[in-house]
Write a structure and sequence with these properties.
The protein is about 20% helix and about 40% strand. The protein is an alpha+beta fold.
C-alpha cells in the first residue's frame, strides 16, 4: 500500500500597475520544470497560510508583500498518492519600487497583463485561474 501525501500551498497574485508577476520554474525545482507559475509554496507545520505566503514570496522573489484578500481555492492530484490543496491571494508590494530577486527555484520572471498573459506554458491549473480572473476587480482590490 502506498502512503498518501497531502500538502497545503499558497500562491500570490502580486499586482502592480495592471500587471501580475509570474516566475519560471528551474530544473532543480520540484515538478513542472520550465513552466510558469505564481510565486508561493507549501505551508510548514505551525504556519498560517498568510505567514507561509509572506515567507515564500520573500524567499522566491525577494518582495515583501501585503496580503489583501483570498482570490481562489484549488485542489489537484499531483500523482496518484499526492494531493495539493491551495489558496491564491491578491497581494501588493509593501514598497513602491519593486525589484525582483529570484531564488534558485526559478530561472526568470515576467510581468503579465490582461492582454499578454497568454503564450506561456503554465504549471497545472495556473492558466485556468488566470483565464478566469476579473482584471478590473484585481485593479480595484489593490487601490
Amino acid at each position: 500500500m502506498v502512503d498518501k501525501k497531502f500538502f497545503v500551498a499558497v500562491k500570490s497574485v502580486i499586482y502592480v500597475n495592471g500587471k501580475v508577476l509570474i516566475v519560471r520554474r528551474s530544473k532543480g525545482a520540484r515538478g513542472d520544470f520550465g513552466t510558469w507559475e505564481l510565486p508561493g509554496g507549501r505551508l510548514e507545520f505551525g504556519e498560517t497560510p498568510e505567514q507561509a505566503l509572506c515567507r515564500e514570496v520573500i524567499e522566491e522573489v525577494g518582495i515583501a508583500v501585503d496580503i489583501l484578500r483570498p482570490l481562489d481555492c484549488w485542489s489537484f492530484l499531483k500523482e496518484e498518492d499526492t494531493q495539493i490543496i491551495g489558496v491564491t491571494y491578491l497581494c501588493k508590494p509593501q514598497l513602491e519600487s519593486v525589484e525582483v530577486q529570484l531564488s534558485n527555484e526559478h530561472t526568470e520572471y515576467s510581468w503579465i497583463s490582461e492582454k499578454d498573459w497568454n503564450g506561456y506554458e503554465y504549471s497545472t491549473g495556473v492558466e485556468d485561474a488566470i483565464r478566469n480572473w476579473n482584471w478590473e476587480l484585481l485593479e480595484r482590490g489593490t487601490e
